[in-house]
Amino acid sequence: VQLVESGGGLVQAGGSLRLSCAASGISFGSDAMGWVRQAPGKEREMVAGISSSSIGIDIYADSVKGRFTISRDNSKNTLYLQMNNLKPEDTAIYYCVAARSIVSLYEGSWGQGTQVTVFS
Q1: SS3 assignment for the chain
Q2: Nearest to 102 by CA among 69, 53, 39, 38
Q3: Of 22, 36, 39, 50, whose CA–CA distance to 97 is shortest?
Q4: How far apart are CA 110 and CA 20, in angstroms?
Q5: Is the CB of residue 35 less than 8 Å from the CB of residue 47?
Q6: φ/ψ of residue 106, rounded to 5
Q7: Band of residue 54 on the pLDDT scale cut at 50, 70, 90
Q8: Exposure of 108 by Cβ count < 10 A (0-12 exposed, 13-18 middle, 19+ buried)?
Q9: How many CB atoms lie within 10 A of CB 47?
Q10: Distance of alpha carbon 40 from its chain centroid, rounded?
Q11: What are the pLDDT digits (tens) for 69-80?
Q12: In terms of Cα–Cα distance, which of 98, 101, 96 is closest to 109?
């Protein structure tokens, strides 16, 4: 399994970024996927998760609801996270994760992470 994130960077508060995760070695359309972030000195947080295409469920942490949108393009084996109205507290390393179900994402496969830094 290989998950490769991209799209992180430095952005001013109120701005937007779109993260991408290119996946290989998994049954992309059949697996659940998600984004987990880790900020220095804080516990990791499941930001968003999306079920397999056949189930069609997505979930969000309360801290990002209404600002972040998770989506997947099965034709490209790519997961996305559109992040709007970014805040300094969104600063973290964002990891792409994949597993058989949303409830097991933490125990699944992880990418190497991409840094997102939001300045005020």
Answers
A1: CEEEEECCEEEECCCCEEEEEEEECCCHHHCEEEEEEECCCCCCEEEEEECCCCCCCEEECCCCCCCEEEEEECCCCEEEEEECCCCHHHCEEEEEEEECCHHHHHHCEECCCEEEEEEC
A2: 53
A3: 36
A4: 14
A5: yes
A6: -60, -30
A7: confident
A8: buried
A9: 23
A10: 18
A11: 999 999 999 999
A12: 98
- pLDDT tens digits for range 7-33: 999 999 999 999 999 999 988 888 999
Tokens coding 14: 């109120």
Q: How far is CA 95 from CA 51, 54, 69, 84, in A?
A: 17, 24, 15, 18
Count of residues for the chain?
120
Sequence letter at residue 77: N
* pLDDT band at residue 4 using 50, 70 and 90 as cut-offs: very high
Name the residue among 84, 93, 89, 94 with its Cα closest to residue 119: 89
